[in-house]
Amino acid sequence: MVLLIHGNDLASSRNYYFEEKNKLTDVIMLEGEGLTLDTLFQNAENKSLFGSEQTILVENFFTKNKSIAIETKKIVEYVNGNKNMSIIFWEPTELLKTAQALLKNATVKTFSFPQVLFTFLDNLRPGNSEMLIKLFHELKRNMEPELIFFMLVRQFRLMLGQNGTDKIDEVKRMAPWQLGKLQKQAKQFGEEKLKNAYEKLFEIDLGSKTGKIPYSIERSIDFFLSDL
């Protein structure tokens, strides 16, 4: 059994991963970064003392091993050729179709955010409150307001972190087209408005955690979007 769990909805994929892990009685945990065929082979061939089937759990294998393609290829070929192997791969992001296709006989579980989330984030700009509130209420049918708030904060942090040479790590990892879109979005706000918006989000976050705001996080997001 080969299982690949991935997706940009990190919380859901992680929960599913732990649910699958908890069903198992005999597991071997391996870190995917720097994993060698020799290490995987030794663990895969090591039979359980209790006679139960062992399952190998590997985290971050595809995400962290882009620079060692030869060893990665050897491991993938070994997994594909070992039909009696029980292994679960977990990745903290959504893999490209080409990466997913490397595991020939794998069951793939993908956990993605609804497309409307990205439409909502892409449309964050001054003077667009009506559309944003409509998208937010459509979005919260399938997502918790707390998660939407987290993604809202992240988007403003990315916009603030794309300026100058001292870019934050998340921005540095972006593809050129993603960075270009982010820079265009940030320019619509301007640095002062971005900082003010980010400060308001910080106040909402602090107030909700300390009980200093008299309304829900959902209502707080409504107010925030109305003021953009």
Keywords:
228 residues; alpha/beta; Rossmann fold; Zinc Finger, Delta Prime, domain 3; 2 domains; five-stranded parallel sheet; 12 helices; 5 strands
Task: Describe the 3D structure.
The protein is α/β, with parallel strands linked by helices and 228 residues long. The protein folds into two domains: 2-110, 3-Layer(aba) Sandwich (Rossmann fold), CATH 3.40.50; 115-226, Zinc Finger, Delta Prime, domain 3, CATH 1.20.272.10. 55% of the residues lie in helices and 10% in strands. It contains twelve helices and five strands. Strands 2-3-4-1-5 form a five-stranded parallel beta sheet, with helices on both faces. Strand 2, helix 2 (37-45) and strand 3 (55-59) form a beta-alpha-beta unit. Helix 6 (115-122) runs antiparallel to helix 7 and helix 8 (145-160) crosses helix 10 (176-189). The mean pLDDT is 90.
